[in-house]
């Protein structure tokens, strides 16, 4: 994904998104994700696909003693470092697949909207399980399977240009999906709910919470946001080691 996110035109458009400019308060899932974080005082945190580093900074503010954010995009890491100046947070240009995942190293592994770019989720689950300390937590949100299974990942519109319904096709056919995002063709991977949840259970995780994210009421006044309430946005998952 670094080639897409490091594209100058793409990144300039990404930088204008509300969650890029305003941070976690502008993320529609944050009101559901924040309560799922475990106590972080004195804990170590790894952020997979850290982007601008919003979750890294949140964890440091909550008292985490060690925070590492990795991302395959050099532009993302550059922005994260700029926004985190003066904070004891480490950032590294590194993809999830390339990271070494040292054994028993982290109390929390968090991932925000990155795992739908990964083809082999079982590989990630295995590596995360091994890198977590006993009693550690894996907390992630991923694009909802009904979203990634869609045709072009967009609404079917009426003749008047109004959204009629969200199409779901080939749900039980996992694999690569090409979609248009911010004017660029972006490669993602569709994973079924069974693959995601059973992949965690089969690896030995204990599911502690599963939520389907929708924007909070206070965001309903944002233009276009009323459409989001009509479909699940993301899947939030908290799993214990």
Strand content: 25-35%
Radius of gyration: 18 Å
Order of helical and strand elements: HHHHEHEHEEHEHEEEEHEE
Low-confidence stretches: none
Strand order of the largest sheet: 3-2-1-4-5-11-10
**Main sheet: strands, sense, barrel:** 7 strands, mixed
What is the rounded distance between the termini? 28 Å
**Structural class determined from secondary elements:** alpha/beta
- On the 0-100 scale, what is the average pLDDT? 89
Query: Which range best describes the helical content: under 10%, 10-25%, 25-40%, 40-55%, 55-70% or over 70%?
Result: 25-40%
Number of DSSP strand runs: 11
Question: What's this entry about, in short?
Answer:
With 241 residues, the chain is α/β, with parallel strands linked by helices. 27% of the residues lie in helices and 28% in strands. α7 packs parallel to α9 (193-203).
Structure description:
The protein is an alpha/beta fold. Helices cover 27% and strands 28% of the residues. The chain contains nine helices and eleven strands. It has a seven-stranded mixed beta sheet, with helices on both faces. The chain has a two-stranded antiparallel sheet with strand order 6-7. Strands 8-9 form a two-stranded antiparallel ribbon. Strand 2, helix 6 and strand 3 form a beta-alpha-beta unit. Helix 7 packs parallel to helix 9. It is globular, with a radius of gyration of 18 Å. The chain starts with a helix and ends with a strand.
